[in-house]
Amino acid sequence: MVKIAQTEYPVLELIKNRWSARSFSDKLIKDNDLNTILEAATWAFSANNAQPWQFVYAHRGSAEFEAIWGCLAGGNQPWCKDAAALVVCISQDVFENGKRNDWALHDLGAANATMMLQATEMQIFGHPMAGFDRAKASTLLGLNPETHTPWVIMALGYLDSPDKLNDPYKTRELTPRTRKALKEVAKSMKIS
Ligand SMILES: Cc1cc2nc3c(=O)[nH]c(=O)nc-3n(C[C@H](O)[C@H](O)[C@H](O)COP(=O)(O)O)c2cc1C
Ligand 1 in contact with 30 (CB < 6 A)? Predict the structure, then answer.
């Protein structure tokens, strides 16, 4: 089951096919494939080409996966235990010269979106989550809170049937994706 976006305009298939899945099969992601997905992220644009992102990942079955999973909120842990990999997505909040990078979060988001499109092309589904204990994750990864911020943990994996989920996750997995109408978010500028 792929929750294909019903769009008003002829958007790329890859964009239509990406969605935040919860039901993952037991198939693991090969290192080469995970590296392909992560490299894709690094080809996103960024202010000054500062590339203010870092990704720390672990494959399911490792102690590191358990440690990252242990940072997730109670609402994310039940379905995330079956993810093939978890990736902590971190912004680097200062430029090399020490000045604050106010665009770091923007650029991390661009990198994450690029990551997800590459994954979708490879039949790998991703699900970003802000529902985690950020202080715990920072400590776990030895991050300096002055310079590095973990924003989302990305669950990655191959799709499985929604039937393996309990509610409310199963219902969410089956609910069609929706968006605001384009006219609510985009308009032609008019000088009055
Ligand atoms: C920054 C961010 C945080 C999110 N946090 C969670 C989360 O903690 N748990 C969850 O189930 N989904 C989370 N999501 C997924 C969103 O709910 C999802 O992207 C949105 O409903 C649109 O659905 P789609 O990605 O399938 O198009 C998050 C998404 C983003 C971008």
Answer: no
At the top level of CATH, which class does the domain 13-160 belong to? alpha beta
Tokens 């202080």 sit on residue: 135
Contact 92 CB / ligand 1 (< 6 Å) = no
12 lines ligand 1 (CB under 6 A): no
| CA–CA separation, 22 and 192 (whole Å) | 47
Cβ–Cβ < 8 Å for 77, 66? no
Residue type, 116: M
Tens of pLDDT, residues 77-131: 999 999 999 999 999 999 999 999 999 999 999 999 999 999 999 999 999 999 9
Best residue among 2, 127, 149, 159 to mutate for probing ligand 1, ranked by most atoms within 8 Å of CB: 127
Q: Where are any strands of DSSP class E within 74-123?
A: 85-92
Angstrom CA distances, 45 to 16, 42, 66, 170, stand at 22, 8, 32, 36
Instruction: Give the single-character DSSP code of 125.
Output: E
Terminal CA-to-CA distance of the chain, rounded, Å? 48
User: What is the C-alpha to C-alpha distance for residues 37 and 7, in angstroms, rounded to an integer?
Assistant: 25
State both tokens at 160: 């499985």
Give the count of beta carbons closer than 10 Å to the beta carbon of residue 132. 22
Domain residue ranges of the chain, discontinuous segments joined by +: 13-160
Instruction: With 0.85 as the threshold, say if the pTM is over it.
Output: yes
